[in-house]
Write a structure and sequence with these properties.
By secondary structure, the chain is of the alpha/beta class. Helices cover 38% and strands 12% of the residues. Helix 6 packs across helix 8.
Length: 217
């Protein structure tokens, strides 16, 4: 799985706030080293440790270079934006200007993941209408899915067999504009970035950008 967080030991003061904040004990301290480290196989990308660290020692693994390579390549590129982007960029009141700003970075297409939400909602409606006594857990959140798979495996069969909205959006973009289109998900959630490798056949997102990284670009 993709690493989404990095612990910078040069900034770390070994306060162990991250160790206490992690709900799944993915941040650990080894006997021979007083500074903690992140156990990737245990991590569910919830971000609690990132928020708890007052020294900015835990850092988001950046995709900026990867995205710049996509934008400078000969491939067509599409940005699929999380709907919450409107709240993050409240200073941009006209969505048309916002789309224009993203396109000026080099993206050929700009789409909103809310379209994927509509597609996924239809699937959930069909699932609920065909209810036959089985309880389902929404598969909307990759962090929840990772937690169940790693720590509550008995509930895996209860996870709804429906992809997250961003994956549905990615698959739709590639179906509409071509399988060779590179899709970049602009999102505040990095759980899907960690979980992205499970998807294939046009549904796998090529790169991710946080809102902060988008501002930097």
């Amino acid at each position: 799985m993709n690493a989404v967080l990095n612990l910078n030991t040069n900034k770390c003061v070994a306060c162990y706030a991250c160790v206490r904040a992690c709900p799944v004990k993915a941040v650990q301290v080894k006997e021979h080293n007083h500074k903690p480290h992140i156990v990737e196989d245990n991590c569910i990308a919830c971000g609690n440790c990132l928020e708890a660290c007052a020294y900015s020692a835990i850092e988001f693994v950046s995709n900026i270079e990867e995205v710049e390579n996509i934008l400078h390549s000969t491939s067509k590129s599409a940005a699929i934006c999380d709907p919450s982007i409107a709240g993050e960029f409240a200073d941009v009141r006209d969505y048309r200007k916002f789309v224009s700003m993203i396109r000026k970075l080099g993206f050929d297409y700009v789409c909103e993941v809310s379209f994927g939400v509509d597609l996924v909602s239809r699937k959930f409606a069909n699932l609920c209408n065909g209810y036959k006594g089985k309880s389902y857990i929404s598969s909307h959140c990759p962090v929840t899915n990772l937690y169940i798979e790693k720590y509550q495996p008995s509930l895996v069969h209860n996870i709804a067999p429906i992809v997250p909205p961003a994956i549905a959006s990615c698959a739709t973009v590639k179906k509409l504009y071509g399988e060779d289109v590179k899709v970049v998900n602009i999102t505040p959630c990095f759980g899907l970035k960690k979980d992205n490798n499970r998807y294939e056949n046009g549904a796998k997102i090529d790169a991710f950008l946080s809102f902060l990284e988008l501002r930097q670009l």
